[in-house]
Amino acid sequence: MNYHIILVIEENTFTENALTYKLTSTNTDNNGEVAPSTNQIGIVHGAHELFLGDGTFESPSNNDLHSYTLKLYFPDTEKDQNDDMNKTFKAYVNIREGHYIYPGYNPEKGVNHPVLFTGMTPIKWDSEFNEIETTEDDSDWYDYDQKRWANAKSADGSYWVWIPRYAYKIESCYHMSGEVCEALTGKQAGEIDVKFLKGTSKISSDNFIVETSGYIAHDKDTSMHHFLHPAFKFNIDELGFWVAKFEPTAHEGLDSGITEESCSGDNVSTKSPLIIPNVTSWRCINVSNAYKVSLAMKDNLVYGWQPNEIDSHLMTNYEWGAVTFLSNSEYGAAEEVWNNSYNGYLTGCSGSNVDAVSEEVCVPFDTENGQKASTTHNIYGVYDMSGGAWDYLMSNYNNLIQASGFNDNDLSLIHSKYITRYVTSENNILNGIGMDYDLNVYGDAVYETSQDAFRHDGLYGKGNIRASWYNDWSYLPRVNVPWFARGGHFSHPKSSGLFAFSSGSGEEDATFTFRPVLVPLS
Are residues 157 and 177 in the same domain? Predict the structure, then answer.
């Protein structure tokens, strides 16, 4: 007899993860399997059903018992928690027949099935790299065990790649530079263990319960535990997200071309992104307009989807980190991604080798060497995340706008799920000192995967500015350049890469582009 335990939460007005729970399981009569005990796990805000675990009795049961104790906590965080005064929590425990079926989870593939929007068509490639349209029922559409991430095209022809919900642990080289990591392990990057999760649960495909809260650097962190990647906290029921396969161009065409001396006509919010290979990338656009055009995609009929199906937005540091960590796991390239070194800003190019720079030839994305520039080292990955142009992200230092096109009020009103905010002290702002990075931010492929990039004097970084894994660029935002940029530029020798981070003023610039992300809505 199979059963599962559900905590039906009818009302929860407490803030996110303010309440936590602990389940203790006892197989009183040693029959079958009890739902596994759990440590303290956070409870998300709002009404929802919380799966606590599966259990099984073997026949004959002879009135055998499985015993459970569920404890609910309002833990002391040693910080001001007055926002959670006079809040309400109403819930009851429900025991249901059968093993729990995780909505959205594909047990055969061990990952969450991609959520297709209206007008989206699944695609794959044959052995000759010819593109094939398929259906979502095709068992050969994707296989993350084989590093074949799910790809699809929207009605306008834009390419998208599915990043399924997962948890991760950094098995080696936590908070180390590539140089230090290589001295210790012989490799320029650490190892990342990824566990894909079932539906929206905290349970992995191998039935391991992962951490979702309580991260403290060097005490309870991702070098010690598997944590749900924070990119998948955009929605309560997030199964995964779609990321643009290439840097974008524009449906309406570009005015600025490929030169870096001219930047005109493309810093607008009236054009719409088109995600395809072998075209000039859309640069010369400030962060504000990149944010606006990414948001506007959900309501644009050219893509074929319905606005109520989708959230579109400018990529954040968390989402960049999610793609990066998956790429560096056994499900991705698991080694350094080659640069897009073509000096003409074409999307989907690779160079002649891993560290090639400023080359006059584009190695196409659908060739053997071209695929080395994808996050999987095959045609199914994400391109242009190393080299090409710097990617502006919706990630900001201390709500400083500089030349981004935002005003102070605009930035303060943006919901936290659309922007990764980093803060520092008032004294450091007045002194022009760079960011005091919050060590308890994780998942963004910054602190966890670099070293000595956190001491700045407002002009140049003190210490090594190539201190990320693979010796990628590691330069934090500061007062004059408060916006994160990722990935590097085609002209940077060896320092471009998925773990590279730098900064910009947010202004339109011929060396900076952006990247949209799509999240399914429930």
Answer: no
